[in-house]
Amino acid sequence: MKNTAKFILDLTWVCLFIVLFPLVATASEGEVTFSELAKEANIVIRSEETVFTVHSLSSGTTRFKTTITILNENGNNRAKLYVPYDKLSKVNYVKGTSFDKVGKKIKSLKNSDLKDVSYMNDFSLFEDNRLKIANLEYNIYPYTVEFEYEVTSRNMMFYPRWRPQDQENLSVEKATFEVLMPTGMKLRYLESNLLKKAEVSNTGPQERYLWEVKNLKPVETEPYGPSFEELVPQVLTAPTEFEVDGYKGSMATWKDLGIWQNKLNQGRDVLPQETVQKLKQLTANAKDPEEKVRLVYDYLQGKTRYVSIQLGIGGWQPFEANFVDTKGYGDCKALTNYTKAMLQAVGVNSIYALIKAGDDVADIKTDFPSSQFNHVILCVPMPQDTMWLECTSQTEAAGYNGTNTGDRHALLITPEGGKLVKTTIYKATDNKQIRSIKVKLDEKGSGVASVSTLYTGSQQETRDGVVHYLKPEEQRKWLYEQVKAPPFEISKYDFVQKKDRVPSITENLELSLTKCATMSGKRMFVSPNLMSKWTYAPHQKEQRLTDVVRKSAFLDVDTVEIEVPVGYAVEYLPREVSHKSPFGEYKAAVKVDGQRVTYIRTMQMHKGRFKPDDYAKLVEFFNNVIKADAEQAVFVKNVP
Predict the structure, then answer these.
(1) Residue 627 and which of 6, 256, 319, 480 are 20 to 30 A apart at CA?
(2) CA nearest 117: which of 139, 91, 143, 95?
(3) What is the 3-state secondary structure (H, E, C) of 251-272?
(4) Domain boundaries, the chain
């Protein structure tokens, strides 16, 4: 009753808000009402206007104005406005006003209310990125905030990305995006999920592009579905010609963008002769180019550390190799350029490469040349394949992309210009978890276990951080939190790491297990799957709307040997099972030889994109795995 009363009260306030708040219009026939937009929403954007005016190749202004109704505490994030700026941009003004549920003004922002803070992160040494923050949070719902700001930029490498519906549980009553270009300057744009395309008109001195959306109800992502970005209306814009801090360029093609980056990099790869001689001595006995790369990469990791340096054109132009060699630090651009210079000194060619980094982030839009990158890595072509070097890491294995930069497009900055290539694609057999467990049980169902697990590829990434960044006492605590097994105490543990193209970590554990088996009278119930039980299956849906997307592939193999006490005989063994689906395969089998039970479980999952109709097969597959993983073997004690 209490929850029902709260719902009626909330609904009453929403209805009252619709009647009293002056910005709300009555819906005409065929339109969507505010009440409909408020269903399943935390936030309703009542109106939003974004106007981007390009003045020249090197200057532009963005004006933004919005009115947002916050329906509950989960929408409070939109009562804060963050306006970034830096050396190449200026915030002309920020305004804000809030209103209560009946439309009465709560507060108008004063300049003194704005916070101006550094956008510096933990890895930054020099950075001119800053934020102006306006906060109009209120604690009685619903309430409305209005924000308006204007920013002038001298960095015209970036034009706006318009995505009015940018989070779940958010509705949009009306939003517009307008771009004003000087006549003769070409705007490039890429539209997605729009019912209405751009309206283009000419006003004489300016070309006008206008997009509009109305009555967008909340969009909800589905389990194993496409990213939110893929489901909502969006417009990407980009220049053809641009200028940043005196450097003119073009991004009409990927080749052109690479030519511009080449200008920034030119002449910045010179090393001191002393360092060149040191590198030649270091690699003098290397048997092949790959060994030279590994030796130079080890030298880099031991000599340098990563810091972020973002000052004006320094956001795209690397510090000189000589600077990094002297100081021992740099950002991704500087460290990559430095590594390139060192490899060049020992006769190994490599290529500076722009990439969009991040665990399982969406790839760039390859058909829309523009600045979509946030990171720089190094490409080292080899006779058989390509090595990729993450030059900011002091622990990464040479040649490993992993989840941060693997399976996506990078822009190689070649002497001829930019060239798109794909980074390493990792298969299920690259991302393995191969586990061997030996357990000896006593008559109370407790036991001791020896566990050795080999992790490779993406499955070793978390443990790589544990090995390098946690102290022994922290490692032990982490293992207690992460190891999934019957109640246990860790007697001993260690990690053994190998830094190959596909790196690996072997985790060795000695465990004391309590309640490893369940005792009931003269029977002993044993779950042979001790540490790899699958527990999650998404809910079945009557109608799946979007594709099924699996972003990772892996292979898990468990071999478990359990020695049961003398005097116990098998009463029941789980049957051998095998399940196949478009998404993966699963096998499990149990065998008994005297007092020894051997359980072998194999689960391999594929990555890829599948039709919505296949979703039911995924749910069925996971439910079958959960059921098989929960099976128990039963032993009975022979009573004389």
Answers:
(1) 480
(2) 91
(3) CCCHHHHHHHHHHHHCCCCCCC
(4) 2-238, 251-422, 428-637
Tell me the CATH architecture of domain 2-238: Sandwich (2.60)
Sequence-ordered list of residues with C-beta below 8 angstroms from that of 629, at least 6 positions apart, any chain: 529, 532, 533, 534, 588, 601
Region 20-46: mean pLDDT is: 71
Q: For the domain bounded by 251-422, which CATH number is listed?
A: 3.10.620.30
Topology of domain 428-637, CATH: Jelly Rolls (2.60.120)
pLDDT digits (tens, 9 = 90+) for 473-488: 999 999 999 999 999 9
Strands 329-330 and 305-306: parallel
Q: Does residue 156 contact residue 57 with C-beta atoms inside 8 Å?
A: yes
Q: Are 553 and 607 in contact (CB under 8 A)?
A: yes
Separation CA 299–CA 322 (nearest Å): 15
Q: What value does the mean pLDDT of the chain take?
A: 92
Structure confidence at residue 121 (pLDDT): 53
Starting at the edge strand that comes first in sequence, how are the strands of the sheet with 504-513 ordered?
488-498, 504-513, 447-456, 432-441, 554-563, 596-605, 584-593, 577-581
Domain 2-238 and domain 251-422 have a common topology:
no
pLDDT at 9 over 80: no
